[in-house]
Every structure is written in C-alpha cells, then in structure tokens.
Design brief:
The chain has helices at about 10-30, 40-45, 55-60, 65-75, 100, 105-120, 125-140, and strands at about 50, 80-85, 90-95. Strand 2 (about 80-85) and strand 3 form a beta hairpin. A three-stranded antiparallel beta sheet has the order 1-3-2. By secondary structure, it is mainly alpha-helical. The two termini are about 25 Å apart. The chain is built from seven helices and three strands. The radius of gyration is 18 Å and the shape is globular. The chain has a single domain (about 10-115), classed as Winged helix-like DNA-binding domain superfamily/Winged helix DNA-binding domain (Arc Repressor Mutant, subunit A).
Length: about 140
C-alpha cells in the first residue's frame, strides 16, 4: 500500500468542502441575523409546524443541547415559540411565529445562492453524479 497524505483522502477533501460551504452560508445568513443551522430548524418547521423538540433532534441528527441552544436563539429573535403539548405537558412543541414564517423565501434565496456558489462550476450531469455518489456514501455510513 502506498503512503497517502491526509489531504489526499476523500474524507478530508469532503470536510474541507463542507467547511467552505458552511462558511458561505454563515456569511449570508448572518446578514439576516441567523447562524448556520438555524435555517434548517426553520425549514423543518415550515414543512410541519408544531414539531416536538425531540423530533427536531432526530431529524437534524444532533444532540438535544444543540437543538435547545438553536431554539433559544430563534425564540429570542422572535422567530419561534415553544409550548407544552396539550396532551403531555412533558413534551415541548415548537411553532413558527409570523416573523419566522416570513423568512421562508429569503432563506430559500440564500440557499440557492450558496448552491450556485458551490456547484455552479459543475455541469448538470456532474451535479447529478455528485448527488448520486453522496447519497450512496451517506447510505453506507448510516448502515
């Protein structure tokens, strides 16, 4: 086996791409007062308002403390509100406010801008190939 440097490994290169992608998103999201990752919480709520905090933890594949911190910030910004579940007061549900709902289009545009900056150098065929390969790798890692 030949010696491979860390920077030649696909995993290392993927991490570098992810960091650059996140930095681009963070830069654009900060212009509207959000941190990277918070827009994903809002995304899940746009598709199903009133999710439980534990559901968000599962969907985002993060630790409960991460969701709590994100929700604290979003709630302080007036974008979401938390309420105890009517049937089980131990369960906390998260709801969008009007301000949170109003960011949907703006955040969508930011993600389109990040997508173009990240993958605009690739042809449509190359984009489809990388999408397929990334899904294959992700599926393998989740097994």
């Amino acid at each position: 086996m030949t010696e491979t440097t860390l920077t030649e490994l696909l995993g290392y290169q993927l991490v570098q791409v992810c960091k650059a992608h996140r930095n681009k998103a963070e830069s654009l999201l900060s212009e509207i007062g959000l941190h990277a990752g918070q827009e994903v919480v809002l995304h899940y709520l746009w598709h199903e308002d009133g999710r439980t905090q534990s559901n968000l933890v599962d969907e985002l594949c993060v630790q409960p403390a991460t969701v709590t911190k994100s929700l604290d910030r979003l709630e302080s910004a007036g974008l979401v509100r938390r309420r105890a579940d009517a049937e089980d007061r131990r369960v906390s549900r998260v709801y969008l406010t009007d301000a949170g709902r109003s960011l949907h289009r703006q955040i969508g545009n930011i993600w389109l801008e990040v997508e173009a900056a990240s993958f605009g150098v690739l042809t449509a065929e190359e984009q489809e190939t990388i999408r397929r390969l990334l899904q294959k790798v992700l599926k393998n890692l989740k097994q």
